[in-house]
Amino acid sequence: MNSASCAAKISTQPFSLNPTSPTSHDNPLVFPKPTSLFLGSTRKIRLSSSSKLNLHRRSGTVVAVSDVVKQKKSKSTPSLLITKEEGLELFEDMILGRAFEDMCAQMYYRGKMFGFVHLYNGQEAVSTGFIKLLKQQDSVVSTYRDHVHALSKGVPARAVMSELFGKTTGCCRGQGGSMHMFSREHNLLGGFAFIGEGIPVATGAAFTSKYKREILKEADCDHVTLAFFGDGTCNNGQFFECLNMAALWKLPIVFVVENNLWAIGMSHLRATSDPQIYKKGPAFGMPGIHVDGMDVLKVREVAKEAIGRARRGEGPTLVECETYRFRGHSLADPDELRDPAEKAYYAARDPITALKKYLIENSLASEADLKAIDRKIDEVVEDAVEFADESPVPSRSQLLENVFADPKGFGIGPDGRYRCEDPKFTEGTAHV
Amino acid sequence: MAAIFQGVGAAAALSSSPSNSFDSKKFVFSPCRSFSVRKGASFAVVRSDGRVNLNPKGRRAQQLISNAVATKSDSAAASSSSKPGHELLLFEALQEGLEEEMERDPRVCVMGEDVGHYGGSYKVTKGLAKKFGDLRVLDTPIAENSFTGMGIGAAMTGLRPVVEGMNMGFLLLAFNQISNNCGMLHYTSGGQFTIPIVIRGPGGVGRQLGAEHSQRLESYFQSIPGIQMVACSTPYNAKGLMKAAIRSENPVIFFEHVLLYNLKERIPDEDYICNLEEAEMVRPGEHVTILTYSRMRYHVMQAAKTLVNKGYDPEVIDIRSLKPFDLYTIGNSVKKTHRVLIVEECMRTGGIGASLIAAITENFNDYLDASIMCLSSQDVPTPYAGTLEEVTVVQPAQIVTAVEQLCQ
Predict the structure, then answer these.
(1) What's the CA dihedral at A331, A336, A342, A345 to 10 degrees?
(2) What does R_g of chain B's alpha carbons equal in angstroms?
(3) Most C-beta atoms within 10 A of its C-beta, which of A120, A186, A188, B234?
(4) Domain ranges in chain B?
(5) What total number of domains does chain A contain?
(6) Which UniProt keywords apply (chain B) (predicted)?
(7) The domain containing residue A341 runs over which residues?
(8) A5, exposed or middle or buried, with CB in 10 Å at 0-12, 13-18, 19+?
(9) Is B87 helix (H, G, I), strand (E, B) or coil?
(10) Which helix (DSSP H) or strand (DSSP E) does residue A385 occupy?
(11) Among B389, B395, B352, B369, CA closest to B255
């Protein structure tokens, strides 16, 4: 697809959608032919319904390419997708993600954190929609855009903020940083800087789950692994290799593609021969689903199916979430390439606004409830910053710790003793 | 690169009889050292002293190998225990080690191409799939980076995988995972996750396998922080190191050599491991320290035969642990002989020898009477032609010449 012509067409097309309307758009030309504001192929015209902000409909919002995931028929009386508690939980999680990332930006520009920081603003529905369905023993593997995945999985905001500040109280003792969030307790297996390199790790975690069930005879082990990655990763070899292995051995894993259309400055369309990522699932023998990633309830419905499949031992699923990042790729990205119209379009589909609307319109929560959550989260984030500020920086002695699980790996020194037996060794005063 | 030395006149001056082969004039510049003349020293039969150190924390596992290139005629008291032991080939020793560890710990599993039904391209995993099943001995698709990463993910979540690269060279495809995840994850996670993985495979220059199947990856991997590297060379240390590597909490890269799989040796029946961080004293000596590993050990021992006949007394150490170096064994030897020759199969540039030279110079410079000499493979892609391949790696004649030059 010629992206230049796409861009040209975008700028001249009138915008036919009314972003403030809560009900379904009567104008089917949300994606004007032959190009769409999604910048994806128009071959998925069927999926135009997924862009609607109508959150009442259970059906027609999720389209699977394979037969395995059945289409849900909408009931005559639309029932609610969530309870009040669930709704508030989802809302709080998304607000936490948003507020935390906004605070990260502030702190970065104030010089409290450095390096590459990749923020998740706009994609909260994917993290919340999926991770809130998991148990603690389920695993999550992410990429460098991992702060919100960590928060959703249960890593305390204090630990994440400290890690970003490079303090010893960080979840990785300050040794990982923004792109390497790990938590053994919450089974967050990283945080990877190179795209695609986390997917095999996720596949391995899923393999362990299957191994535990079948070899170690832990019959109730039904732990599921979620692998989050972006559209750029879907052109990488490790992605395809792991789709193959996961489907081959029916591993309990869900591959979640956060397709935000951009890999730094590379548009997904310019990089991919067939931009419909969900179609790549059935090529490997697993269902491929496309879902509106700006709608947390739709994501949650799909996630339930996919995670349920994995738990029952039916194998992996590929879920493509159409989403968008409101900020640049990282805090160093001037974000000049993306069309302001595209940004405005997705800003209008802010997942937090959408959920808020749903909750209020369905009387699941009042404005006051939601404002209370806002304030609570503000406090949590402020507290996290304070905690991180006051935490100590790592001392020199921490440098050589954790290089090896068994420090005998540093070897035997000239005096015949293991280097690690020297009490001064990890302080770095001994010769390394 | 392999140093080609011209015949040294001094060597010719030596008599060939071993008992009075030492001309003290050669060592006149170091009067304070005493050296013993090895009377009637015949090459290569070094009796084991019968002690086995099974304590992994023990420093000096005094394992003396009964013969460097094990042949039936030479096997004297090879076993180090009261039991007679059993004889097997090196690949069988690896298999035995693997099998015993898999029996001992159900979390140990194997992954790799053709490890299951095919039994491994060098038969190291033969029979294991039948015994332990297809999931524990997993035949993977041809996707090194991904199945190595899968092994790492499995290791992080509680298993103890042994990942096989069908040929070590294929692990180049897994470099992303080995460097970033295998080596670094324990650190970047602040110590939360351990990666008790063993990555093994055959490497080295074989018989006309061509450039890409003749690679020595130890030099590429040695800089990766967080991993250990060992190279086995005899059935005894193959089994012992394999078991130690599997039991280790650190990620270990285990180098085997394509040409050593059919070495035969008698090994003990009982359970034993070899310390991952220790070097092995192959032949004690007085005149020169020869540091080597893997296949080159045998070239060195072959050269040692000639050297002994010429009146030299080389001390041969198989360093075994490529990362970290056993500076105790190496240091003691340097302090004794004051001359060091390194014989290795990897390339000269950035190889194990280069690192060894740096380590020895930094730690034992005062004890050296001569510059360290390093014989490595030529910095060329290994040619197919047999004649060219032969001169790519270090041959015994070159080792002899090098020692003669060093001991001038």
Answers:
(1) 50
(2) 21
(3) B234
(4) 86-268, 280-407
(5) 1
(6) Chloroplast, Metal-binding, Oxidoreductase, Plastid, Potassium, Pyruvate, Thiamine pyrophosphate, Transit peptide
(7) 84-387
(8) exposed
(9) strand
(10) helix A367-390
(11) B352
A8 Cβ contact list (under 8 Å, min separation 6): none
Which of B60, B154, B192 minimises the CB distance to A184?
B192
Distance between CA B291 and CA B357 in Å, rounded?
Answer: 10
Tell me if the domain spanning B280-407 has CATH number 3.30.2010.10.
no
Amino acid identity for residue B158 in this structure? G
In a domain, A309, yes or no: yes
CATH code at position A307? 3.40.50.970
Beta carbons of A215 and B133 less than 8 Å apart: yes
Handedness of CA B8, B337, B395, B38 (dihedral sign): positive
Q: Which two tokens stand for residue B335?
A: 């302090």
Residue A402 lies in a domain: no
CATH topology of domain B86-268: Rossmann fold (3.40.50)
Angle CA A189–A193–A195, to nearest 5: 90
Question: Would you say residue A94 lies in a domain?
Answer: yes
Q: How many CB pairs under 8 A join A and B?
A: 201
Question: Nearest chain A Cα to B276, which residue?
Answer: A409
List the pLDDT tens digit at each of the 432 positions of chain A. Answer: 444 443 333 233 333 333 343 334 344 333 333 333 333 333 333 333 344 433 333 333 344 444 333 444 444 445 788 999 999 999 999 999 999 999 999 999 999 999 999 999 999 999 999 999 999 999 999 999 999 999 999 999 999 999 999 999 999 999 999 999 999 999 999 899 999 999 999 999 999 999 999 999 988 889 999 999 999 999 999 999 999 999 999 999 999 999 999 999 999 999 999 999 999 999 999 999 999 999 999 999 999 999 999 999 999 999 999 999 999 999 989 899 999 999 999 999 999 999 999 999 999 999 999 999 999 999 999 999 999 999 999 998 899 889 999 999 999 999 999 998 888 787 766 555
Among B180, B249, B324, beta carbon nearest to A405:
B249
Query: Is B153 in contact with A201 (Cβ distance < 8 A)?
Result: yes
Residue type, A124: E
User: pTM here?
Assistant: 0.82
* Cβ neighbours of A409 in B, within 8 Å: 226-228, 248, 250, 277, 324
